[in-house]
Amino acid sequence: xxxxxxxxxxxxxxxxxxxxxxxxxxxxxxxxxxARGAPAELLDTAWSLGFTGLSIPEGCGGGGARRSHLTGAxxxxxxxxGCAGLAGAALSSMLFVxxxxxxxxxxxxxxxxxxxxxxxxxxxxxxxxxxxxxxxLAGMATRAERSGTGWxxxxxxxxxxxxxxxxxxxxxxRASHAPGLAGIRAFIVGTDAAGVTITPERGTIGLTALGFxxxxxxxxxxxxxxxxxGGDGADIRPLLASLRIGGAALATGLARxxxxxxxxxxxxxxxxxxxxxxxxSIAFMLADMHIECxxxxxxxxxxxxxxxxxxxxxxxxVLARNYVNRHAFKIADDGLQIFGGxxxxxxxxxEMWLRNMRMLTIHDAIAAA
Amino acid sequence: MSGFSAALCCHVERAxxxxxxxxxxxxxxxxxxxxxLSADHPYFARFIAWRRAHPLPAEDDAMPEGHAVRxxxxxxxxxxxxxxxxxAAPGPGLPTPLVVAMGTPEQRERFLAPFxxxxxxxxxxxxxTEPGGGSDTSAFRARAIRTDRGYLLNxxxxxxxxxxxxxxxxxxxxLDPDKGRAGQRAFFVERGTPGMTGIKIENKMGLRAYESxxxxxxxxxxPRENLLGGEQPARGSRSGAYGETMGALNTTRVGVAxxxxxxxxxxxxxxxxxxxxxxxxxxxxxxxRLADMRRKLRAAWLMTLRAAWKADRKIPNVVxxxxxxxxxxxxxxxxxxxxxxxxxxxxxxxxxxxxxLFRDAKALNIVExxxxxxxxxxxxxxxxxxx
Lengths: 369, 387
Fold this sequence. Notes:
The complex is a heterodimer.
Chain A: H1 8-25, H2 29-35, H3 40-48, H4 69-82, H5 84-91, H6 94-103, H7 106-112, E1 124-127, E2 143-147, E3 150-160, E4 168-174, E5 184-190, E6 196-200, E7 213-222, H8 237-268, E8 270-271, E9 274-275, H9 280-308, H10 314-339, H11 341-344, H12 350-367
Parallel strand pairs in A: 1-4
Antiparallel strand pairs in A: 2-3, 3-7, 4-5, 6-7, 8-9
Chain B: H1 6-33, H2 42-53, H3 67-88, H4 96-102, H5 105-117, E1 123-127, E2 143-146, E3 150-161, E4 166-174, E5 184-190, E6 196-201, E7 212-223, H6 241-278, H7 284-312, H8 318-343, H9 345-348, H10 353-364, H11 371-383
Parallel strand pairs in B: 1-4
Antiparallel strand pairs in B: 2-3, 3-7, 4-5, 6-7
Helix pairs in contact in B: 1-3, 3-6, 3-7, 6-7, 6-8, 6-10, 7-8, 8-10, 8-11
């Protein structure tokens, strides 16, 4: 039976993060955009809320809560409402932790996850994108080749969120000749390994608070059990579905922020003798923004529900991601348009939101393929 | 460039050489600095020398194209290399047609002549937009009051191009509010005039190569001879400064449309070149999107040229100018957006030109009347709704 009701726990998580987004993220969004990075004290505060370790098994020192994509989507939408860039920065370790919870071997969980359950912030991230692979994820050039009992990794990753401070990375690489995504595996790589070079990205259009980095792997030696899931490694498709859901939830939060910001302005701004909200060209724009925010949220929830039910969420997540990419971008664009010249200057967040959304949709277009 | 006279093509070729060698690098420098090049930047001195060597085509040049078409063609080429640097170009700029059309002979001499002989870069500015009214040009609240010596100006203006470095700003203010918008007049406010305060250069999303300035006029007094056209407008048939200003905006709308086409063409060329370089062109989907970009680019250009052509023949072109403006601006935005999609990651991170074009293009559907205002103008003219 269909239900749009959330559990008490989910409501609590959402309320906490909504307040956090409003009080902590939104006021720092512009300064983080200009500084091209998130302030450490903010990341520490976010860490102290304890969400990273929430779903880590009790045996690894975590909260032991049931891992839920829906809860994850609620968190990202709530935080994305405050600032998509800082939201991503605050939760970037989850890009490493959640795939380990979902797909890691017992040994991997016991070895890596306890570090994320303490009071001290532990930074890790995910290296997915490449310059050359474009929209074809299966065409990635980074490869891991068997060498004795271990692996040797060669290649270069781009747009790694919070890449510079990360201790560990989950790196996607071609591990066999199996066609398409079936030949791709995820590897756990310590950033202190010989041959790993991390440099900051330059000239990023948006989400600059995420501190994107380029990471190069020049023949990096990995142990045999570095492959996520152990053995021959886990199928990465559930991981990709999970990323699409998260990215779409983040964009939905950002789109909702734009909509909620535009409505009072349209009611107050007078042109040609009446508030512009009374002009149908603006009123219809606002109505469409509202409609699409709702539609996007339910598409995300549907995909999250599929994943939480243990079903293959590939299709639902691609639909959600694709839908959100198109509509969330239009909302950010229309939001700026409603503010006109005032939206184009950096005193208000509209232009930053459009840049962030442009980055999200580029980022997402790759992962949505 | 085809279908234009050899004389005009020669001007375009000079603009292309200059654009490639000087304008593009200067525009990128300004964008990366996040601020316009300083007024004493050597680029501007080189610009003055280049402009002197290659003056704009004049009315009496032997050229079959009319003034509006010439300017559209040159605007398009200039914006291909950098729209922001085009606005930042030294010279009397935007207010020129108003001063030529409405100024007294003394005013034309006093305010325009220094630009003809200047060996150092100088700027002028035109201040119409106010914080409370962007596209609604009749809602402006700046006021002028007659005094013994001249006029006392009060009000605030925003998004005024080059105003912080301008020798003078032509400020629109209402001298006779009882007459409504017909009471609007324009006043020369020279740099350093007491009462012109709160000068702030805005930090913008794009088009960072020129100053967009907000300022406040607080009991700012200008001499009597600074009222554009003098106490009585020279030609009695005029409805006043408001009608004249709106007439000028019809011309600049075509100019913005042409700039948007130039920007869009650049986005198209850059994307096509990326697709060839990267091999993405082998994808049918990418080829289809490029073909779609090209169709829209052509349509926008033809629409712009038609609006200019009508202007040259004194055929009313209000609808054509608005259509061209909104269509070209939205085409520029769409082509830059699609270009970023095709280029992908490198467009989001990598100091990609199309990324800059995306940020620049967004302004073009806002300046000189938003896309929404253009649609209102078009619709009113089509169905004859009351104004």
